[in-house]
Amino acid sequence: EELPASEFMSEVPENMSDQKVKGMRMKVGVAISQDGTTFGRIEGDDPSGACMVPYDKSMGPTTGADGKRIDVDEELYCAWPDVVPITEGPDDFLMYYSTMLKETKEKVIAFGASKEGFRFQKRGVCLRPDDGTMDAKGLSRCTVQENHIYNENGRWTKSKGLIMYYEGVGEDGKNRVMEAVSTDGKEWTKNGVILDLGPEGSWDCGGVGSPSVIRMDDGTRRMYYTGQG
Known about the structure:
4-stranded antiparallel beta sheet
């Protein structure tokens, strides 16, 4: 689908006023596998077959688990999902995804909730850019985990709350890995940059992002990330 480039820009350069872009109306799908090697798609509720699509007011109001209306911003795309199985709380699955808001053109992280992991109800934006910080120009590509602590017996045990690692874009236009924490998966507190740019001239001095973090048996955490020079 070709769309006007101006739809994704807060300020449109004169030479791009008539330009088109393709592939930006991204959506989220789901697939399952018995062996982890071969996956089959599961048809979502959207006519396209996706399970999470950009929100538009024509879709009607969104309600929460308590039946109360939730104000959801209109979105231009849904991309880079990360789903967390929740062991405590009213929802069994929380999906966090990157999107751009139609009205403000802000790049934010939004989320949805599900009981079975196939049908997700939107819950709105959970993290927005903050002026004067390293995510002032936008946020994207997050990974979320339930909190764990490494105990005296040498094992990771679940603790309260969640932790999010995400990609923030600063005023300089460069990406950094940042962290936020939450007690309920809805309201988040930012902790700032946890992985900065590499030294000048290094392979990742131009930006770092797309974090993936795993817990190791020795009590440390290991992060894999994308870097650019």
